[in-house]
Design a protein that fits this description.
Elements (H helix, E strand, L loop, with lengths): L1 H46 L4 H17 L16 H8 L17 H29 L6 E15 L2 H8 L8 E15 L3 E6 L5 H9 L6 E6 L3 E4 L12 H11 L4 H15 L14 H14 L4 E5 L7 H16 L3 E5 L3 H7 L2 E6 L2 E6 L1 H12 L3 E2 L4 E2 L13 E3 L4 E9 L8 E3 L3 E10 L6 E9 L4 E6 H4 L11 E9 L5 E13 L2 E17 L18
Parallel strand pairs: 3-7, 3-8, 5-6, 6-7, 14-20
Antiparallel strand pairs: 1-2, 1-4, 8-9, 10-11, 12-20, 13-15, 15-18, 16-17, 16-19, 19-20
Helix pairs in contact: 7-8, 7-9, 8-9
């Protein structure tokens, strides 16, 4: 009995202990819950007395408490408040919040008031001037201008290897792995509405680059460019065309990119197809077109879309002579309609005939602008290295000509042509001669032995190798005398240039007869390339300069 009683007593004690532990845990839970409720209520009261920014931060902290507090409420873990009582008292105690005192405005003396008014007027004046300057920079103030270019520059960074570009971009090396190439350097000029302006220059002078910047294909490195009018551009063969589309689909594609609706393109379609004149090929993919058909369609779209500004870059050199004639006739129609044309070409004859004004570029720098004749004359000096860019004038007349390094040279050595060049009617060495002007062929010969009767000659052929004209001292009966060893003779042939515009090759020679044998002492084939600049070409190789009268 005693054992049972003891066992029951032990069980009773265990039950009591369990009850006490349960009560303690419940009390702890209720006490923690009460503390949390009081904390939230206190914080809610305090948030009403702080600023909006502080309220926002406090709300984030309250949210954090609610997210972390209920993790294990039935555990023995003691939860610690984010801020202790002292911190709360220091920051959120309502007694510590100081009300902002009302600032009472003090009276200002008349001298101080006058001084402040003067300062305000000066500041308003400065702001007004700067604003006016800013507005003048952003807009074309002259309504007569179609294109305004100010201090335009374009630079490229050139790398020897593709990996150098990546290394420099990512900052993997302290060395500069690129070199800067300036395609355009501080170029400025204006194009007036209704004007036809040509841009000329040697290869690499930046002509195509400036057109691409105007049309938005490229972005300038620095400078401002303003355009007033709808642009249609024919920059390069196939630009803007999808090779897989038919010609007709590309007409609508280009028209859409220029901002026209299908209805507007439908109205212009007949004129486009008539101008292109490619027949049923309009329904074939353009990848099957020849270069001539391609440029026909591209130019037909560009010029018949009715642009306000037409930009053409050497595209007309692809078409045949009849198509080129049609295009230039369209140019004249455009000029009569008051349209603006910006034209880049190496054909100096076309530049001279159709342009009102010409801009000359060389190595990205603008050398000048003016009348076609004036700029073409300067361009001819640039071609032979005789233009002094710093002084804006012709360099020494003794400058070397741009001669053919691959000329054919032979002879028995009895004589030698030491020097040769061409001069224009102004006495300037040049390989470009204006049709109708006088020019001179010069050569200097040294003789290495006695010769009875030397013959000095020159001939001109076209680029296909066909001899067109030429003469010598025997034909002209100009020199029939013997020469001695060591003699030096300077020979000049002066004549009028009546060949059609184009490219030609000059050959020189010193020959003679010794008995019945014909001897070649020294001959230079294709030694100089001659460019004939013409604004009127007739049929055949040369112009007879006919005088026509109609009664």
């Amino acid at each position: 009995m005693s054992r049972k009683k003891r066992k029951n007593k032990s069980g009773t004690n265990n039950n009591k202990a369990n009850q006490v532990r349960s009560v303690n845990e419940n009390m702890a839970y209720e006490e923690d819950e009460t503390k949390e409720t009081e904390l939230v209520e206190t914080e809610n009261i305090e948030t009403d007395s702080v600023s909006d920014d502080t309220s926002t931060d406090l709300q984030k902290e309250i949210d954090l408490v609610w997210e972390t507090a209920p993790i294990r409420l039935d555990s023995d873990i003691e939860f610690i408040d984010i801020m202790d009582d002292s911190d709360e008292d220091d920051i959120y105690d309502e007694d510590d919040i100081v009300e902002e005192e009302e600032v009472v405005p003090q009276p200002v003396s008349e001298d101080v008031a006058d001084e402040e008014e003067t300062i305000n007027r000066v500041e308003e004046s400065d702001n007004g001037e700067s604003q006016a300057e800013k507005e003048s920079d952003e807009e074309i103030t002259d309504d007569s201008l179609a294109i305004s270019i100010k201090h335009l520059s374009k630079s490229y960074r050139l790398y020897k290897r593709g990996s150098d570009r990546l290394r420099e971009s990512l900052g993997l090396t302290r060395k500069t792995l690129s070199t800067e190439k300036k395609a355009l350097d501080d170029v400025s000029f204006d194009v007036k509405k209704g004007e036809t302006v040509g841009i000329i220059g040697t290869n690499g002078s930046g002509k195509s680059t400036i057109l691409k910047i105007i049309t938005g294909v490229l972005y300038q490195t620095s400078g401002d460019i303003k355009v007033d009018g709808r642009i249609s551009a024919l920059l390069e063969l196939g630009a803007g065309f999808n090779q897989e589309y038919t010609g007709l689909e590309n007409v609508y594609l280009n028209g859409t990119m220029m901002g026209y609706t299908d209805k507007e393109i439908d109205e212009k379609l007949d004129s486009i197809l008539e101008f292109a004149d490619i027949g049923d090929y309009i329904y074939q993919p353009v990848k099957t077109y020849s270069s001539g058909m391609f440029v026909r369609l591209a130019f037909a779209v560009a010029i018949n879309i009715d642009p306000e500004i037409l930009i053409v870059d050497e595209a007309l050199s692809v078409g045949d002579v009849f198509f080129q004639s049609k295009c230039y006739h369209k140019f004249e129609e455009f000029k009569k309609m008051g349209k603006t044309i910006l034209f880049v070409s190496h054909d100096l004859g076309s530049i001279s005939k159709y342009c009102d004004r010409v801009v000359l570029l060389n190595k990205g720098v603008k050398l000048g602008e003016g009348s076609p004749k004036e700029m073409i004359d300067v361009y001819k000096r640039v071609l032979v290295g005789q233009y002094d860019a710093e002084n804006g004038d012709t360099a020494s007349k003794e400058s070397a000509d741009a001669k053919n390094p691959n000329l054919l040279e032979y002879g028995d050595g009895s004589a030698h042509i030491d020097e040769y060049y061409i001069t224009d009617e102004g006495g300037i060495r040049s390989s470009s001669i204006v049709k109708g002007s006088r020019f001179t062929v010069y050569m200097k010969i040294k003789f290495n032995r006695d010769i009875t009767s030397p013959i000095f000659a020159f001939s001109i052929k076209n680029i296909k190798g066909t001899e067109i004209t030429g003469t010598n001292t025997m034909f002209e009966k100009a020199f029939l005398e013997p020469v001695s060893k060591g003699d030096v003779k300077e020979v000049t042939f002066e004549q009028e240039m009546n060949l059609q515009g184009g490219e030609y090759l000059l050959s020189l020679g010193v020959t003679g007869f010794e008995g019945d044998d014909f001897k070649v002492y020294h001959r230079l084939y294709d030694c100089i390339n001659i460019t004939v600049v013409s604004d009127k070409d007739t049929v055949g190789f040369y112009d007879m300069n006919s005088v026509i009268k109609v009664k």
